[in-house]
Write a structure and sequence with these properties.
heterodimer; A: 475 residues; mainly alpha; B: 98 residues; 0% strand
């Protein structure tokens, strides 16, 4: 129980400490240091020594299991990475560093609450605490049109998703007499007020699909990913998606009772994969391309979940961790090439980056190969497990759709690498500054992506425990 | 009575959702969002009468807090955006394609 409450308390403590600290002078090393310090502190408090297996429903309807811990470790790691990238990004785009740091930490705290939630309303509170700071971070360069507009669009559509989820949880309460997930499962068992309950669950799932940017609920994604300052795009693409899918995995236990949900999941997966990949083909802004690719990846993650088996949850979690690393790394790379906000983010701007900067070029090759699903990167293993789970679960045609659309996707990922190694003319991105911290962060993520491709078992064992724990709660 | 209240809340929610999707003034869109959240509150209050116990009423307070936090951030962001682009009409925001 203590292990549960402490990380939340630590998160709140750190974010208050950061806000009150004299960080507002804005020395970039300090910002990065504080992120790392906070990350290390929270991880230490997290008590990773405790056994991961099993699932423990504690007071306040918080669930302490491996899924929550993986989500938290990913969120803290990505926050640390964001701190490194922001420290360099701030030189060309000065903004309030103390507030931004506190907002990232608030979002991490929210991600933890959401990942631990065993209650629909609590899940909403967690997702809101994770999202609201990200809305502000999107618009933190408030005198520029793109971030300001991106923030407003994100707030409106994110608010709509929240409204839908809140109404869904209200209907669940009306039918089950409680907003806890266990009560909802029990109500499905007994079959009382089943229609209201299913309507509530469907609305709730729709809201989560918005947050996970699944097509056709992805309309906000390209605008927000393009508008947000790139380091914060890296953060939201990894953390908000992870949190939304953690919620979807917690809902997974309901699939067994509601067969209609399975058809909806399959439909969402197909639409996301097709729409995301084909829309990404025609983009010339790399951030927008990565946004549509994020829609496509959300579709790939749904493919194994549609099977309804435990193996599907394992594959989805594996993919989710890898996607967080790949996506954050890719946006970090764009941030490396970006000077002033919005300058240096097109394919053209990446011209010859790999020739001029061999190390960042190598990272780019690893990350974009991983996003395309080329072996021996972790991205390949993630796709392999996802499609294998689908075939094993009897959804071979869904796996075929996935393989076909990934082949379409390979075109635009490899296009990035082609541009990076073209020698024709100089890129216009500002790479004059060294940006050591960004390089360090991107390199670290690239190495992880590569390592999980070579040795997928190390991650697979962890996510297996997480999948078992998540399902054990409700069965 | 319970059934009627659920229907009332569904109507409120639908009005909010339709308003959100069709109106072009950002302030009206934000008001529609509030309507959707308060439709949920009607359900919570009605159902808490049926089920008894404090959970439904406590949920209402949580939803109100969510709505307040969201409105605060949304209005601040709208003000910032208005200063840059000078309009609150959603379809006149053109810095980002889409």
């Amino acid at each position: 129980m203590k292990a549960l409450v402490l990380p939340v308390a630590a998160g709140v403590f750190f974010l208050i400490a950061v806000m009150l600290s004299p960080l507002f002078t804005g020395r970039r090393w300090w910002v990065a240091l504080v992120y790392l310090f906070a990350a290390a502190g929270v991880l230490a408090v997290m008590g990773l020594t405790r056994p991961l297996a099993g699932s423990h429903v504690a007071a306040l309807r918080l669930v302490d299991d491996a899924l929550a811990r993986i989500a938290f470790i990913v969120a803290v790691a990505v926050a640390g990475f964001t701190g490194l990238v922001v420290a360099d990004y701030r030189r060309a785009n000065p903004h309030a560093s103390g507030e931004a740091t506190a907002l990232v930490l608030a979002s991490v705290t929210g991600a933890l609450i959401a990942a631990m939630a065993g209650d629909f309303l609590l899940l909403i509170v967690g997702i809101e605490l994770a999202s609201l700071p990200v809305y502000v971070l999107t618009g933190i360069l408030r005198n520029r049109p793109r971030p300001a507009e991106g923030a407003m669009k994100y707030i409106l559509l994110g608010g709509f998703a929240t409204g839908v989820m809140v109404y869904g949880s209200a209907l669940i309460y009306a039918a089950a007499g409680s907003t806890s997930m266990i009560a909802a499962v029990n109500a499905l068992h007994t079959g009382a007020s089943k229609h209201i309950l299913i309507a509530g669950l469907a609305l709730f799932a729709t809201g989560l699909a918005f947050k996970a940017s699944l097509a056709p609920f992805h309309m906000w994604t390209p605008d927000v990913y393009e508008g947000a300052p790139t380091p914060y795009t890296a953060f939201m693409s990894a953390v908000i998606k992870f949190v939304a899918f953690a919620g979807i995995i917690r809902l997974f236990a309901f699939f067994a009772f509601v067969t209609e949900l399975k058809h909806i999941i399959i439909a969402l997966a197909v639409i996301s994969m097709v729409w995301g990949n084909f829309a990404a083909l025609v983009q010339d802004n790399v951030k927008r391309m990565l946004a549509y690719s994020s829609v496509a990846h959300a579709g790939y993650i749904l493919v194994p979940l549609a099977t309804g088996h435990k193996e599907g949850v394992v594959a989805a979690l594996f993919y989710l961790v890898l996607y967080a690393l790949m996506s954050a790394g890719a946006f970090g790379l764009i941030s490396y090439n970006e000077g002033e906000e919005g300058k240096g983010v097109t394919f053209e701007d990446l011209t010859a980056l790999g020739v001029k900067k061999p190390l960042i070029g190598l990272c780019g090759v690893i990350l974009f190969f991983a996003l395309a699903g080329v072996p021996p990167t972790g991205g390949f293993m993630a796709k392999f497990y996802a499609f294998k789970a689908a075939v094993d679960g009897g959804l071979w045609w869904l796996a075929l759709v996935g393989i076909f659309t990934s082949m379409v996707g390979a075109y635009y990922y490899l296009k990035v690498i082609v541009f990076m190694y073209m020698k024709k003319r100089e890129g216009t991105g500002s790479t004059g500054n060294a940006k050591v911290l960004t390089v360090a962060g991107v390199l670290l993520l690239s190495l992880f992506v590569l390592a999980y491709g070579v040795d997928p078992k190390s991650l697979l064992d962890v996510v297996k425990v997480a999948a078992e724990g998540a399902l054990q709660l409700l069965y | 009575m319970f059934g009627e209240l659920i229907i009332l809340s569904a109507v409120l929610f639908a009005v909010g959702a339709v308003g959100f999707l069709t109106r072009r003034n950002a302030f009206v869109v934000l008001m529609s969002l509030e309507l959707m959240l308060n439709a949920a509150n009607v359900v919570f209050v009605a159902a808490s009468k049926q089920w008894g116990g404090p959970e439904g009423l406590a949920s209402v307070l949580i939803v109100i807090a969510i709505a307040a936090a969201e409105a605060a951030v949304a209005l601040a962001a709208l003000l910032a955006l208005f200063r840059v682009v000078g309009t609150e009409k959603i379809d006149e925001w053109r810095a980002l394609r889409g």
